[in-house]
Amino acid sequence: MELNHNQAETLAALQELIDVVAKLRSPDGGCPWDLVQTPETLIPYVIEEAYEVVDAIQSGDQAAISEELGDLLLQVVLQAQIAKEYQKFTLKQVAQGISQKLIRRHPHVFGDVSVQNIDEVRQNWEQIKAAEKGEATPEKHQLSAKLSRYGRTLPPLMAAMKISHKAAAVGFEWENIDGVWAKFHEELGEFHQALAEETPERQQAELGDLLFAVIQLARWYNLDPSAALQGTNQRFVQRLQKMEAVVDRPLSDYSLDELEILWQQAKAQLAQES
Question: Which spans in the chain are helix H?
Answer without folding.
Answer: 5-24, 32-35, 43-59, 62-85, 91-105, 107-110, 118-132, 138-141, 143-153, 156-169, 177-197, 200-220, 225-246, 256-273
